[in-house]
Automatic annotation (TrEMBL):
GO terms for molecular function: 2-dehydropantoate 2-reductase activity; NADP binding. This is 2-dehydropantoate 2-reductase. One of its GO terms (biological process) is pantothenate biosynthetic process. InterPro entries: 6-PGluconate_DH-like_C_sf, 6PGD_dom2, ApbA, Ketopantoate_reductase, KPA_reductase, KPR_N, NAD(P)-bd_dom_sf.
């Protein structure tokens, strides 16, 4: 399969490494505009702490035109610009997969892209950490849920994509109603990301008793908003999932805390900010999510 990955962050390079292991795949990378001279190799450290140099091929105009699958592994607020940079080059049969935290992005895609392409959501729970530019570590195994956001894939294309992704980095599951999984992942992000970013703590510390009330209120608000959006969730199961993820990634630094420490823009607007905006739309107060959104935005401005 001909695959172009947009984004040289931890998730983009993680998928690049595993997809490029197969001779059946032609995998190339598009870096962000600030990378004027991408390196010929990047450093990858595996789960068993073995480091290796991976050959890196940057995408040409021809490879973009012939791509079967475009993986957008960028921040939520970068998706529209990333699509805009290739929308005149990609062919109509190319499938576009969005791999980002948060929600509210697909609705902002250009109509030209929505009408011409099958758009997928890829929800990834594998752990990956950027140690430095073009230097990443695979920190934990997870899974990938994938499903259609716009368009309708034929069975042949769907099975081909699933087989390619599963052979590279299992396990990958097709979800007929991916919206449910999007909200479940949003719940995890709405808790772990802001609490770690505001308090400058590792993921595992989110399970400390002092954050119990904040977690409960954040999830209760999200469940209410999700119901207004036609998605049924339960607070009990979501809190259990959040605690499990925090435990499994106990020593990890969340992406939001990493962004704050590096003085980068976070995805807070598409996480707790998304709940805040839907609360306004539905005329429902979301004080805890609104507080998290405001606090992280305040931290961003201080950096």
């Amino acid at each position: 399969m001909k695959i172009v990955i947009i984004g040289q962050g931890a998730i983009g390079l993680l998928w690049y490494r595993y997809l490029s292991l197969s001779n059946n795949n032609n995998v190339q990378l598009i870096c962000s505009k600030n990378i004027t001279r991408p390196p010929k190799r990047f450093t990858f450290t595996s789960l068993d702490n073995k480091s290796e140099q991976i050959d890196l091929v940057t995408a040409s105009q021809e490879s973009i035109k012939s791509a079967d699958l475009i993986l957008l592994c960028v921040k939520a607020f970068q998706v529209v610009d990333a699509i805009d940079s290739v929308k005149c080059t990609i062919n109509q049969s190319a499938v576009i997969a969005l791999c980002h935290n948060g929600m509210g992005v697909a609705e902002k895609l250009p109509q030209r892209i929505i009408k011409k392409h099958n758009i997928l959501s890829m929800l990834i729970t594998h752990g990956a950490k950027a140690n430095a530019s073009f230097n990443i570590t695979h920190t934990g195994n997870g899974k990938t849920d994938i499903g259609s956001v716009y368009g309708k894939l034929n069975n042949h294309t769907k099975e081909r994509i699933l087989k390619t992704l599963n052979n590279a980095l299992p396990n990958v599951y097709w979800q007929h109603s991916v919206k449910q999984q999007q909200w479940e992942k949003l719940a995890i992000n709405c808790v772990i990301n802001p609490i770690t970013a505001i308090n400058n703590i590792k993921n595992g510390q989110v399970n400390n008793i002092e954050y119990k009330q904040e977690i409960s209120e954040t999830i209760a608000e999200l469940v209410t908003i999700a119901q207004m959006e036609g998605v049924n969730l339960t607070s009990e199961s979501l809190i259990t999932t959040v605690k499990k993820v925090a435990s499994l990634t106990a020593e990890n630094t969340s992406s939001m805390l990493s962004d704050i420490l590096a003085a980068r823009k976070t995805e807070i607007d598409n996480i707790n900010g998304y709940i805040h905006q839907l609360g306004i739309h539905h005329k429902i107060a979301t004080p805890q999510n609104t507080f998290f959104w405001q606090q992280v935005n305040s931290l961003e401005k201080r950096k």
